[in-house]
Amino acid sequence: MKTNKIIITSLLLAIGLILHQITPGIFLGMKPDLLLVFMILSITITKDFKIALITGIVAGVLCALTTTFPGGQLPSVIDKTLTSISVYFIYKSLKSNSSLKLSSIYFLGTIVSGSIFLSSALFLFGLPAPFLALFVSIVLPTSVFNCFVGFSIHKLIATNPALKSKFINF
């Protein structure tokens, strides 16, 4: 593992944690998961499986510290760890590096994350509402939001020559 990949990952997770913490509840008190956006950004920038796994574990612990979901600590760790592995393999399996690929990574990553989180919370503690209602009202809108935010941040880094040389080219 390169030290610069670890440093960039930790900086991105710190930014994601701060944004996750200060973002107010938008719909019925639920917040978009900006930590997830920065976790996926880190995975797509570093392109390293070991870093992706560590990123998922660390993001899960950080998300568990800031979750407002009742009993959401353990499901957060499970969710982020499994999502990081899934996102890494989804990213590696898609061949082109197009705008559609980047958008779909963020969209699918959020769908996977929300599904794993709700499933593990349902299995471990129960849900405050039916699974399908939470999935449709929280996970799908968050997926669309994360798709646009993640794509925008990724393109911002990729189009800025100074940032591109520091972040994208390892």
From TrEMBL:
The chain crosses the membrane at residues 6-30, 51-71, 106-125, 131-157. InterPro entries: TrpP. The keyword Cytoplasm does not apply. Keywords: Membrane, Transmembrane, Transmembrane helix. This is Tryptophan transporter.
